[in-house]
Amino acid sequence: MTEPAPGTGITLRQLLMSLGEPLVELQAAPAGLDVPVRDVAILDPEDQATAAAGELVLAIGARGRAALPALRAAGRARAAAVAVKLDAPGQADALREAATEAGVALLSVRRETRWEHLDSLARVIISGPDAPDTDGPGAGDLNSLAQTVAVLTGGIVSIEDTSSRVLAYSRSSDSDEVDDLRRLSILGRQGPEPYLAKLREWGVFQQLRASEGVIPVDPHPDLGIRRRLAIGIRAGAQPLGTIWVQEGAQPLAPLAEQALVGAARVAATQLVRRRREVSADVRLTQTLLTGLLEGSTGPQSLATHLGLDLRRPATVLAYAAGSPSEGSDLELTRAEVTGLISVHTAARHRGALLAPVESRVYVLLPELPAGLPMSTVRSWAQEVVEAARDHLGVPLRAAIGSTVDGLAAVPESRAQADRILDAMRRGGVDLEVAALSDVQAQVLVSEVLALLQERTGLRDPRLTALTDYDHRHGTRLAESVLAWLDALGEVRVAAQALHIHPNTLRYRVRRAEQLTGIDLAQPQQRLLAMLQLRLPAED
């Protein structure tokens, strides 16, 4: 469908972007996001289901399957969308299927949202000549990016627009490392003309316009210019600016060029974000991506919005940070880790999408080449983990979800990555980066232990009594039994692991059996003991 004429409405995409914080979530958009929305209609549950072309139908009171007549009527009338409230997550599947069959978009309204508020806001957006002001953060984002690039490259960074005006720059603790060009650019908020003329003379700007790669600039001590790396920031063929990295007292990091490639792609998003429509577009992308990862939004919406191929392979990486170094600001550390992940990932995969969700950061890698080796994705994740440790002092864990056949299965890949991170958090995995094939047994044992932890009725009370006895008397009977079981009954091996005499271990195992009545000669009892005695001690 074509975009409506001025004054006659907006597109569904513009409506969703202008709503700001999501009062609604897009569940299905079988006709795409560019369908025109010209009016809002309220459908009372006692009314006959009707609709008109281009309407946003608010199905008040029609929850779950009760909204099916409204969807069918809206489809017949070529309405833009139907908005409903859901009582249970499972209702979305049936309604999404019905909306797709009817060819009409489906929006789920948050339970706390008042219908009259959504009605009035949607009418203002549709009828008004301009969408609400949605300009995103400006230079603050760029300054954070400049600082991230400085950490990754070991250099001194500035980000400039196409007129060589300084938009952001990294902090430098040693003024002696800063050369004249950098100093004068920062003081004047723009590159000084004599130096810019030299860069033009050397063909630097021409190379930046012609290439998407990193351009080296040789040092010129006589002019007060140290060695530099530069890369153009662009949105497609449109130049947006440049990132400059000046070498200080130490050589730049070996992976400086790779970091610059990723930074240029991230900077492009942040620069265009200053425009209202693009800013809202970025927010809509985040909403659709988060919904896809959580399984609350179908894949078609994100694919339509970004022009992605639904059938190409995809995978999800999940990152979780440990405790930052002492004295670090937690919120700042989270921002730095997120920035580091975004830069590294963008350098490796142009179409990567990033979504921080609570304490974890998820990266969706869509449209992967068929047959991409797992080792390649693992190396990407390992680079991020090592960079976080080396540059930020933050222990980062990474989990690689399964590579799925298309965007529809992305929630499965995310769930698998979460299972691995959960096992890492519980202490069942020693690796920094892992896929399920690396740690299948550890993950499954970790999940069984989590079940035993939650459901005390599944535990053997005699083993519980053994750990309680240790707690009261300061003994180590349970620990000794577990070590003996892990060593498959090899007393000397278990005793060596505990740093005790083999006879002491034999006594402790016999004492545990006498106190509790457990019979460790029974295979089932040994199996249960090996699991239950791994549970963390309770206070």
Report on the structure:
Helix 5 crosses helix 12, helix 9 packs across helix 12 and helix 17 packs across helix 18. 47% of the residues lie in helices and 16% in strands. The protein is built from 20 helices and 17 strands. A 5-stranded mixed sheet has the order 2-7-6-5-4, sandwiched between helices. By secondary structure, it is α+β, with helices and mostly antiparallel strands.
SS-derived structural category: alpha+beta
Question: Approximately how much helix is present in the residues?
Answer: 40-55%
What portion of residues belong to β-strands? 15-25%
How many strands, what sense, and barrel or not for the largest sheet?
A: 5 strands, mixed
- Residue stretches low in confidence (pLDDT < 50, at least 5 long) are 1-7, 129-139
Beta strands, count = 17
Mean pLDDT: 83
Tally of helical runs = 20
Strand order of the largest sheet: 2-7-6-5-4
| Radius of gyration from CA coordinates | 29 Å
Shape: flat
Distance between the amino and carboxyl termini = 64 Å
Secondary-structure map:
Blueprint (H helix, E strand, L loop, with lengths): L9 E2 H7 L5 E5 L7 E2 L1 E5 L11 E5 L8 H10 L3 E5 L5 H12 L2 E5 L5 H13 L11 H15 L2 E6 L4 E4 L10 H9 L4 H9 L2 H7 L3 E4 L10 E8 L2 E9 L9 H17 L3 H19 L4 H8 L8 E7 L8 H19 L4 E5 L2 E6 L8 H19 L3 E5 L9 H17 L6 E3 H19 L6 H13 L3 H10 L4 H8 L3 H15 L6 H10 L7
Parallel strand pairs: 4-5, 5-6, 6-7, 16-17
Antiparallel strand pairs: 1-3, 2-7, 8-9, 8-12, 10-11, 11-12, 13-15, 13-16, 14-15
Helix pairs in contact: 1-10, 2-3, 5-9, 5-12, 9-12, 10-11, 12-13, 14-15, 17-18, 17-19, 18-19
